[in-house]
C-alpha cells in the first residue's frame, strides 16, 4: 500500500518538476525604447525585452539578489561581462546592429534573459 | 591661481530646474568660475581654482542643492566592488566557522562510532535540533535567499539543490525528534540526521569561500591593467610645471616626465630623449630608445632621461584604455566550445531533481530495511553531489585567464572564438613587407642603362614616386631628398659623394597614374615637350611591351640578393633600374622555426617577383612562397589555401591587408595597437615580435587544453558520481555515498575547475620569459 502511494507520488513529483521547470512558457517580451530597469532577483525581470536596431538602449541592471550566482551578467553577443554590485544600478549601453534574438545570462549560465532586436 | 576644469556625474536630476539649482549652488562656491550641468548626460563641468576649491566643497555644494555628485566615481566603484567582495568573504567565513563548529558538535553526538566518545548532552536529539537550527536557517539562509526568488521565475540552480537536500535531512530529523513514536510505528528506528544537514551546509559554504577567492584571481589581469594607469601628470602651463589629475589632461598639453616616472597619456616627444620601459604594454623586456618626434605610450615607464611630450591621446583613446577595453570584451565573449555545457546546464538541475525523486521511490520500494532511511539519505546524496557550477565555470574562467595572460605579453585577443580557432591553425600566411621585414626599405642600387646617368634615373623615378605612398616609393623619395645634403642615412659612400656634386631637383609630373601592384606612370616635360615615363616592375614593363633584353642579367642578380628592383622606362626606351631592400626582422627566423616545431606550415605572400621573394623566404626559413600577388588578390590566395581543408591564419600589418585578414580563419595584425589594426584583426600583436605568433598558438593550445580538461572533469564528475549517489554500485559492491562525502566532492569539484584555469597563469608563453608587470 505504502509502496503504491510512494510510487504514484514520485511519478506525480517527476511530472510536476518537468512541467514546472522545463515547460514554462516564455514570457511576452517588453518593448523598450531608450532605457529599461532590469531587476536581478532569482532571474531577470523583465526576462525578455525587445529593442530597436541601430539605436542605443540603456539596460539598467539592479541586483536585488545577494546570491553570488547572479553577481555577474554576461551578454556574449555584445561582448559584455559586467559585475553587478548588490543593490546598485549598473548601466549597460548596447547599440545592436543586427535584428534577432540575443540571450544573456549570469556568469555561470544558470539564469537567462533575452533581448529581441527588431527593425 | 591654478585654474582647472572637471567633469563629474550627478544623480537625482529630473528637470531643467534641477540643472539651474545645481549650477547656482556650484557657482556660489568661492573659486568656481564656471559651472555647466547637462540634464541628458547627467554630468556637471566645473571650472575652478584648485588652490581654493576641493572635491569635498563641490560635493557638499551639490548635496546642499539636494543631489548627489560622483566626483571620484570610477575609483569609488572599483573600491566599492573590492570592499563588497571582502565583506562577502568575511561574512561567508563567519558562517563557515559557525556552521562547521556546530556541525562538528552535532556529528560528534550523532555519528555512529564517534558518538560513543561524546558527552551525553550532545546525544540528546533536542540539543542536536538546537545546534542544527541556526546552521540550517541562519548560515544556510544564503541558499534559501537565492533559491526562493529563482523558484518564482520557475528556474532552479545549485542553491535549489542544496535547499531541497538539506531541508529534507533537517525536516526528517526534526520530525524524528518531535514524533519518534510515529517513525517507530512504521518500523524505522527514530534516528535524526542533523549532522548530514549541518555538515553539508558548512562544507558547501567552505567550498564557496575558496571558490570566490580563486575566482577573484581569474580577473586579475584586468585589475592590473587598470592599475597601470598613472594617477597624475606634470603639465607645463604658462611656463610652470603643475601636477594635475590625469582626467584633467587635454590634447595638446605639454607634459614633463622625469626619470623613473610613469608616462601619463599617449603622445609625441617634443623635447629631450630617453630610454623607455614598455614591457607592461608590449611584453618586451628591452627598454626602447625614444627621441624628439617619437611616440610614447601612457603607463610605460621613463627609465633614464627627462623629456617633454605633447599629449595626443587621452582618456578612452589611449592605447592602455584600448587594451583594457579589448581584454574586457574578449572576456565577455563566449567560446563555441561552451555551447554543449550551456545546453546541458540549462536542463541539468531539473533533471537532477527528477533523478532524486526516482532514487527515493526505487530505494523505498526495492531497498533493504530501513528502506525509508536509505531512500532519504540517497536522495539527499543525489541532490548534493550534482554540481552544475563546475560546468558553468569550466570555459569562462579559462578564457579569462588565457586572454589576460595574452595581454600581459602584448597579445590582444579580440574574442574567445579567435582564441579557440587559433589552436587548430595548420598554415600561417605572412605578409612580407612590415611583417617579416622591418617595412623600412632603403635604396641600395641605382643603375643607368646604356651610358645613361644614374642621377637622371633617380631624378625621373623620384619625380614619379613623390605622388605615391607606397613604402618603396617613400624610400626612393627620401633617398632623392637626401642627395646633396649631409645626410645621416646609411647610404653607399660613392653615391653620396656623387650626390654632393649633383643636387637632385624633382620634375613636375602630369597625368600621374598608379597601377596597383605594378608601378607608376606620368608625363614629364622635357625640353618643352611632354614625355611619358614608367617606373615599376616587370609586369608594368610587359604591359607596355618593353623587353628587358640584355639587362635581364643585372636585374636578376639584384633580385637574387632579395632586393626589389624597379625599372624606369620612357616610351619604349629602358633607362635604368633602382633596387630597394628591406631588412628582415631580427626574430623572424626564430619565430618561423618555432611555428614549424608546432607543426605549422609557414607561407610568405608578397607582391614581389618570385626571385626576390625566395631570397627573403630563404633568409627566414620559409619554403612555400606566394609571389607576384597583387594586393587585391591576397584574399583569394587565402581562400585557395583554405580550400586545401586547412585552418589558415594570416599575419599582416592590419591596414593594407584587412580583407585577407578578414578572410583568414584567424587574422593576426602585427600592429602598434591602432584602432584600424585592432578592428581588422582577430588577434593583435602589439610588440611586432614574430615569436609572438608562435606564442599565440601555444597560448591557444594551452587554454583549449585547460578548457577540455575542465569540461571533462565537470561532465565526468557528474556523469560518474550521480549514479553512484543513486546507489548504482550498491547491488554489486554494497557501496553507497554518504551525503557528507557528497558535499565534500561537490565543493572540491568547482574549486578544482577554477584552480585548473588559474594554473594557466604559470604557463610560459615564450622560451625566454618576458618581464611583465601584469
From TrEMBL, chain A:
The chain crosses the membrane at residues 6-23. Signal peptide: none annotated. Residues 14-117 form the EfeO-type cupredoxin-like domain. The keyword Cell inner membrane does not apply. It comes from the Bacteria. InterPro entries: Cupredoxin, EfeO_Cupredoxin. Keywords: Membrane, Transmembrane, Transmembrane helix. This is EfeO-type cupredoxin-like domain-containing protein. It comes from Candidatus Yanofskybacteria bacterium RIFCSPLOWO2_12_FULL_43_11b.
Automatic annotation (TrEMBL), chain B:
Pfam families: E1-E2_ATPase (PF00122), HMA (PF00403), Hydrolase (PF00702). The chain crosses the membrane at residues 92-113, 125-144, 156-179, 191-210, 347-366, 372-395, 711-730, 736-760. Residues 68-95 form a coiled coil. Keywords: ATP-binding, Cell membrane, Coiled coil, Copper, Copper transport, Ion transport, Magnesium, Membrane, Metal-binding, Nucleotide-binding, Phosphoprotein, Translocase, Transmembrane, Transmembrane helix, Transport. Gene3D superfamilies: 3.30.70.100, Calcium-transporting ATPase, cytoplasmic domain N, Calcium-transporting ATPase, cytoplasmic transduction domain A, HAD superfamily/HAD-like. One of its GO terms (biological process) is copper ion homeostasis. One of its GO terms (molecular function) is ATP hydrolysis activity. It is found in: Cell membrane. It is a multi-pass membrane protein. Residues 4-70 form the HMA domain. It catalyses: Cu(+)(in) + ATP + H2O = Cu(+)(out) + ADP + phosphate + H(+). It comes from the Bacteria. InterPro entries: ATPase_P-typ_cyto_dom_N (IPR023299), ATPase_P-typ_P_site (IPR018303), ATPase_P-typ_TM_dom_sf (IPR023298), ATPase_P-typ_transduc_dom_A_sf (IPR008250), ATPase_P-type_domA (IPR059000), HAD-like_sf (IPR036412), HAD_sf (IPR023214), Heavy-metal-associated_CS (IPR017969). Its EC number is 7.2.2.8. GO terms for cellular component: plasma membrane. NCBIfam families: ATPase-IB_hvy, ATPase_P-type. Belongs to the cation transport ATPase (P-type) (TC 3.A.3) family. Type IB subfamily. PANTHER family: ATP7, ISOFORM B (PTHR43520), P-TYPE CU(+) TRANSPORTER (PTHR43520:SF8). This is P-type Cu(+) transporter. It comes from Candidatus Yanofskybacteria bacterium RIFCSPLOWO2_12_FULL_43_11b.
Amino acid at each position: 500500500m505504502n509502496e503504491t502511494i510512494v510510487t504514484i507520488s514520485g511519478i506525480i513529483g517527476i511530472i510536476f518538476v518537468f512541467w514546472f521547470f522545463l515547460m514554462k512558457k516564455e514570457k511576452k517580451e517588453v518593448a523598450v525604447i531608450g532605457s529599461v530597469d532590469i531587476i536581478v532577483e532569482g532571474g531577470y525581470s523583465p526576462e525578455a525585452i525587445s529593442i530597436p536596431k541601430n539605436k542605443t538602449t540603456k539596460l539598467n541592471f539592479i541586483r536585488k539578489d545577494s546570491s553570488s550566482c547572479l553577481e555577474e551578467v554576461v551578454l556574449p553577443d555584445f561582448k559584455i561581462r559586467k559585475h553587478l554590485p548588490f543593490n546598485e544600478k549598473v548601466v549597460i549601453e548596447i547599440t545592436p546592429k543586427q535584428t534577432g534574438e540575443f540571450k544573456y545570462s549570469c556568469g555561470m549560465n544558470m539564469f537567462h534573459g533575452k533581448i529581441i532586436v527588431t527593425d | 591661481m591654478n585654474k582647472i576644469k572637471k567633469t563629474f556625474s550627478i544623480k537625482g536630476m529630473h528637470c531643467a530646474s534641477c540643472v539651474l539649482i545645481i549650477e547656482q549652488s556650484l557657482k556660489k562656491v568661492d573659486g568656481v568660475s564656471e559651472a555647466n550641468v547637462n540634464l541628458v548626460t547627467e554630468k556637471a563641468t566645473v571650472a575652478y581654482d584648485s588652490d581654493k576649491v576641493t572635491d569635498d566643497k563641490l560635493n557638499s555644494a551639490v548635496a546642499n542643492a539636494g543631489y548627489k555628485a560622483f566626483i571620484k566615481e570610477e575609483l569609488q566603484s572599483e573600491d566599492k566592488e573590492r570592499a563588497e567582495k571582502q565583506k562577502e568573504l568575511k561574512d561567508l567565513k563567519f558562517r563557515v566557522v559557525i556552521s562547521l563548529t556546530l556541525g562538528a558538535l552535532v556529528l560528534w553526538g550523532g555519528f555512529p562510532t564517534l558518538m560513543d566518545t561524546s558527552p551525553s548532552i550532545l546525544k540528546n536529539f533536542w540539543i542536536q535540533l538546537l545546534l542544527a537550527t541556526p546552521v540550517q536557517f541562519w548560515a544556510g539562509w544564503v541558499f534559501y535567499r537565492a533559491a526562493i526568488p529563482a523558484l518564482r521565475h520557475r528556474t532552479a540552480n545549485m542553491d535549489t539543490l542544496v535547499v531541497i537536500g538539506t531541508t529534507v535531512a533537517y525536516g526528517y530529523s526534526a520530525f524524528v525528534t518531535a514524533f519518534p513514536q510515529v517513525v517507530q510505528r512504521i518500523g524505522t528506528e527514530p534516528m535524526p540526521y542533523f549532522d548530514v544537514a549541518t555538515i553539508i551546509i558548512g562544507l558547501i559554504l567552505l567550498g564557496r569561500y575558496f571558490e570566490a577567492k580563486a575566482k577573484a584571481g581569474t580577473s586579475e589581469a584586468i585589475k592590473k591593467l587598470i592599475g597601470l594607469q598613472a594617477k597624475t601628470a606634470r603639465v607645463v602651463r604658462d611656463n610652470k610645471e603643475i601636477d594635475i589629475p590625469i582626467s584633467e589632461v587635454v590634447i595638446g598639453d605639454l607634459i614633463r616626465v622625469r626619470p623613473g616616472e610613469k608616462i601619463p597619456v599617449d603622445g609625441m616627444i617634443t623635447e629631450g630623449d630617453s630610454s623607455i620601459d614598455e614591457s607592461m604594454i608590449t611584453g618586451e623586456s628591452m627598454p626602447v630608445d625614444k627621441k624628439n618626434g617619437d611616440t610614447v605610450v601612457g603607463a610605460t615607464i621613463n627609465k633614464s632621461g627627462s623629456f617633454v611630450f605633447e599629449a595626443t591621446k587621452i582618456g578612452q583613446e589611449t592605447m592602455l584604455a584600448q587594451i583594457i577595453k579589448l581584454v574586457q570584451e574578449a572576456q565577455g565573449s563566449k567560446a563555441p566550445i561552451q555551447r554543449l555545457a550551456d545546453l546541458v546546464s540549462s536542463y541539468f538541475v531539473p533533471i537532477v531533481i527528477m533523478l532524486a525523486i526516482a532514487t527515493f521511490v526505487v530505494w523505498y520500494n526495492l531497498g533493504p530495511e530501513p528502506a525509508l532511511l536509505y531512500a532519504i539519505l540517497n536522495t539527499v546524496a543525489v541532490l548534493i553531489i550534482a554540481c552544475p557550477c563546475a560546468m558553468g565555470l569550466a570555459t569562462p574562467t579559462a578564457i579569462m585567464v588565457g586572454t589576460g595572460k595574452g595581454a600581459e605579453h602584448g597579445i590582444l585577443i579580440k574574442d574567445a572564438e579567435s582564441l579557440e580557432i587559433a589552436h587548430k591553425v595548420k598554415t600561417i600566411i605572412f605578409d612580407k613587407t612590415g611583417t617579416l621585414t622591418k617595412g623600412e626599405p632603403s635604396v641600395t642600387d641605382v643603375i643607368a642603362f646604356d651610358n645613361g646617368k644614374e642621377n637622371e634615373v633617380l631624378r625621373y623615378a623620384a619625380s614619379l614616386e613623390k605622388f605615391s605612398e607606397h613604402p618603396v616609393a617613400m624610400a626612393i623619395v627620401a633617398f632623392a631628398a637626401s642627395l646633396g645634403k649631409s645626410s645621416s642615412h646609411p647610404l653607399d659612400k660613392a653615391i653620396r659623394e656623387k650626390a654632393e656634386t649633383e643636387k637632385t631637383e624633382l620634375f613636375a609630373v602630369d597625368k600621374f597614374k598608379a597601377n596597383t601592384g605594378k608601378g607608376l606612370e606620368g608625363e614629364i616635360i622635357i625640353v618643352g615637350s611632354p614625355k611619358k615615363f614608367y617606373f615599376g616592375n616587370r609586369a608594368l614593363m610587359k604591359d607596355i611591351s618593353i623587353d628587358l633584353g640584355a639587362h635581364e642579367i643585372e636585374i636578376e642578380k639584384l633580385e637574387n640578393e632579395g632586393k626589389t628592383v624597379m625599372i624606369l622606362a620612357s616610351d619604349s626606351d629602358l633607362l635604368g633600374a633602382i633596387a630597394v631592400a628591406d631588412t628582415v626582422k631580427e626574430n623572424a627566423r626564430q619565430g618561423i622555426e618555432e611555428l614549424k616545431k608546432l607543426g605549422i606550415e609557414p607561407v610568405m605572400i608578397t607582391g614581389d617577383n618570385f626571385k626576390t621573394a625566395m631570397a627573403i623566404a630563404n633568409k627566414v626559413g620559409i619554403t612555400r612562397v606566394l609571389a607576384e600577388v597583387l594586393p587585391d588578390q591576397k584574399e583569394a590566395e587565402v581562400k585557395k589555401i583554405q580550400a586545401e581543408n586547412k585552418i589558415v591564419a594570416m599575419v599582416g600589418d592590419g591596414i593594407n591587408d584587412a580583407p585577407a585578414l578578414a578572410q583568414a580563419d584567424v587574422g593576426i595584425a602585427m600592429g602598434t595597437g591602432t584602432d584600424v589594426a585592432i578592428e581588422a584583426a582577430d588577434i593583435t600583436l602589439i610588440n611586432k615580435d614574430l615569436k609572438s605568433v608562435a606564442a599565440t598558438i601555444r597560448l591557444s593550445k594551452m587554454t583549449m587544453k585547460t578548457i577540455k580538461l575542465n569540461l571533462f572533469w565537470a561532465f565526468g564528475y557528474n556523469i560518474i558520481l550521480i549514479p553512484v549517489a543513486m546507489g548504482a554500485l550498491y547491488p554489486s559492491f554494497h557501496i553507497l555515498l554518504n551525503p557528507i562525502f557528497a558535499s565534500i566532492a561537490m565543493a572540491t569539484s568547482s574549486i578544482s575547475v577554477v584552480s585548473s584555469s588559474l594554473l594557466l597563469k604559470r604557463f610560459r608563453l615564450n622560451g625566454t620569459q618576458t618581464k611583465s608587470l601584469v
